[in-house]
Prior knowledge:
Elements: E1 8-12, H1 18-42, H2 47-59, H3 62-87, H4 95-112, H5 119-148, H6 152-172, E2 195-196, E3 199-200, H7 202-219, H8 221-231, H9 233-238, H10 243-270, H11 281-291, H12 296-320, H13 324-346, E4 347-351
Antiparallel strand pairs: 1-4, 2-3
Helix pairs in contact: 1-13, 2-3, 2-12, 3-7, 3-8, 3-10, 3-11, 3-12, 4-5, 4-6, 4-10, 5-6, 5-10, 7-8, 8-10, 11-12, 12-13
Amino acid sequence: MDEKMPLIRIERRQDISKTSVWMIRIMAFVLALVIGSIIFMICDVSPIEAYKTIVIGAFGKATGIRQTVKIMVPLLGTALALAPCFKMKYWNIGAEGQITMGAVGAAFFAINFYDKMPRSILLITMGLSGMLFGALWSFIPSFFKAKYNTNETLFTLMLNYIAIGIVAWLQGGPWEGKQGSQIVPNFNKAAVLPKVWGLHCGWIIVILLVVFMYIYLNYTKHGYEIAVLGDSENTARYAGMDVFKVIVRTAMISGAISGLVGFMLASGQNQTIYADIAANNGFTAITVAWLSQLDPFAMVLISLLLAGLSKGSSSLKTAMGVPGSISNIITGIILLCLLGCEFFINYRLIIRKKEEHHD
């Protein structure tokens, strides 16, 4: 008895050119714009004017560009932090907490030592302290993962809320300014990152991190070990690699970079610390890392796109009276289409022809 093949079946692509990959992504982006246009028309808003407002709001003026880059810096820095973990198939969902603890480490010196050190030494100490706090916060789940094979996804996620709780306690306790305010006072000027071209110098640090991470992942022994372990733990062990050491070391590097982002947020962008200082960068950066396929230079473009959408969408409300919820919907549609297109990059749909059948 003949049994017909399924009408539609999914087959994994064995090979696809970079040109085809980017064509699929461009088509996904265009589709997102079309869907967004329909939503704008439903809201009685001209899609052309709306998209024009987004672009001009994000990149039309020097102030807009600075705000876009300001949003981009922590997003890109966090995505770079996640890259080595994700390449190793260690699902670090705890960057939010590592950023927060990095901010705590930096704030400790900003609050207690602003008048006891030269400014340059203070800022370097704050940065190193932020990296140390982030690395130690990342060490906890990585140790248990490497030693007892615990679920790092849940472990790192839960640590986020503990970190936020610690800062909330500090806000209303040891570091509280005016009694009852639940606010940590702004840092002294000595503890604030200097500005370069109207923006705190964290953007220079992030550019250097892009180059560092590209070289680290592609041209170092550590990067090779991360790639091998990500492909197969058994292969890594067979090759004589110390799997425990690689997991912990990689997670701590990731945490250290996230902690550095926390320092930049506390010292450069906010000039203080509060419970929500990570501002969801730890979660949004997962999207950046995924879409970039862990390529540091691709992360620059994708984080710039998301930052531009964020800044430009906020302009819709002020310039055209579009509700903030609509702006969030448009951003969500673009992200959904860009993430969804990865399916078509890795798989293809095969539609059965009439004459095809299975004997």
